[in-house]
Amino acid sequence: MNKLKMVLPFIQARWFRRFSSRQALARYQQKALEKQYAYMRTHSPYYRQLPKDESFPFMDKQFMMTHFDELNTQGIKKEEALAFALASEKTREFNQDYQGLSIGLSSGTSGHRGIFITTEAEQALWAGTVLGKMLPKGNLLGHKLAFFLRADNQLYQSINSPVIELAYFDTYHPLAEHVARLNKYQPTILIAPASMLVALAQQIEEKNLALHVQQVISVAEVLEETDRDYLAAMFDLPMIHQIYQCTEGFLGCTCSHGNLHLNEDIVYIEKEFIDERRFYPIVTDFKRTSQPIIRYRLNDILVAANEPCPCGSVFQRIEKIEGRADDIFLFEGKNETTVSVFPDFIRRCLLFVPDIRTYQVTQHSPRLVEIAVDQLTEQQKQQIQEEFQNLAEDLKFTCPQLTFSVYEWNPRIKLKRVARNF
């Protein structure tokens, strides 16, 4: 029965949920929002006690965890859900439910772990929507998906059906084990964090792995432009797709032209602009009822693309996911001021230097930045120094001391190529 419930959202996402204009989309969203608000005022203890004339407040992860018991509509207690999710993490067994619900933990990239819950109906809705949007055009049946992630969840396993097979690959396991299993499994679609995809591509380059996939989808991490080009070459594909998915919802995915769009048919996004095109998304998921995601402020930095997409979709096109707010570097400016530098400017200091692909830049203090690269020549170090000095002069901050180290990839941790740790 749960598999049958996937059919309608699959059909809607793939063929029928189309909008002729932004105005038509806005009318659809308004009706969906009104329905969701009415439901929450009836079924969520937290929203039930709000005065009817009071607007719904903004939330974030801390708010969600503080009010978890009152927010959710399933009567689930935070401590019980957390204990269940942690037990699954420790045993690496993710096939059990809790009172008919799927419960998982966020990866805690921003420093705070969160709990997410989904009902069986929501799992079917999610699976049908993802498959409807992401399966290759004109080729629906018989796909074998290889799915890499830190933790499995019944939400992801809901994709399994008589016509589509999903195999979970635990990123805690050794890379050699994955290579052997992939050579035997031979998936048609490969889904993994960008850093894992790069590691697998390197195995292809070294002739240890032979795959003939129809589609590669990057998830969970920022997909760098250089990594995207390298992956396309190694997997012999015209483009690398992306899914913008987090515990707050299925927020975006690439279209047939490889451009990332927000999924505005299932989420409403308010934009908190940082500059002319960068913004923080404030998410309302109007398809999810067990755990309200209403006016949820993410600290992801999205860059809006203003030109229309050749695919014809009216959904907001995103040029890139630049990083998180807590990855904006902070340097010393003139007269004791602080200069904020977006992650993209830091990336460029490495991208302008030839023959650097895998790296990580970590700011330890306003005066100290660590550059981790696989192999680095003295000439490359000098070029990086010059790029940082040029950036400092352009943005008027004091250039920090740069230290260099060897890059070591840890597949158990979500990779952030640009990170600030103070």
Automatic annotation (TrEMBL):
SUPFAM superfamilies: Acetyl-CoA synthetase-like (SSF56801). This is Adenylate-forming enzyme.
